[in-house]
Amino acid sequence: MLAKSDLAKMYETVLSIPGMNEKVRVDLKIPLKNILILSKAIERGLTGKDSDDLSPNLIDLVSAETTNELMGISTEILQKAGLLELNEKLKKMAEK
Predict the structure, then answer these.
(1) Is the dihedral of CA 12, 89, 24, 27 positive or negative?
(2) Beta-carbon neighbour count of residue 17 at 10 Å?
(3) Rounded distance, CA 9 to CA 94, Å?
(4) I need a surface site. Which of 26, 46, 58, 73 has the fewest CB within 10 A?
(5) How far separated are the first and last CA of the chain, in Å rounded?
(6) How far apart are CA 96 and CA 93, in angstroms?
(7) Each residue of 3-54: pLDDT tens digit?
(8) Which strand (E) or helix (H) includes residue 4?
């Protein structure tokens, strides 16, 4: 596995590749519950915590079916943007 600093440099390099700021239209039709859960997952991923520490953790209450639906959305977004293969390679590099 790469050192944390090396992994950070690699991601920083990938994010600075020409074209990475290009806008991609992603048309999604998903249930409102998945939008709420997805927003909480993004919030948790970016901040490391939920904004409302008093409420039950919504993400921990999600069913396996909903989790699979959200993972499918993630894959669909990457696929529409043409980044699915790059994402898989980055995952493998982070695991090694």
Answers:
(1) negative
(2) 9
(3) 12
(4) 46
(5) 4
(6) 5
(7) 888 888 888 999 999 999 999 888 889 999 999 989 888 888 888 776 665 5
(8) helix 4-15
- Annotate 19-42 with b (16+ C-beta within 10 A) or e (fewer): eeeeeeeeeeeeeeebeebbebbe
85-87-88-94 Cα dihedral, nearest 10 degrees = 150
Give the DSSP letter string of 63-86.
-HHHHHHHHHHHHHHHHHHT-HHH
CB 40 within 8 A of CB 66: no
Written as one string, the DSSP assignment of 21-67 is: T----------HHHHHHHHHHHHHHHHSS-S-TTS--GGGG--HHHH
- pTM for the model: 0.73
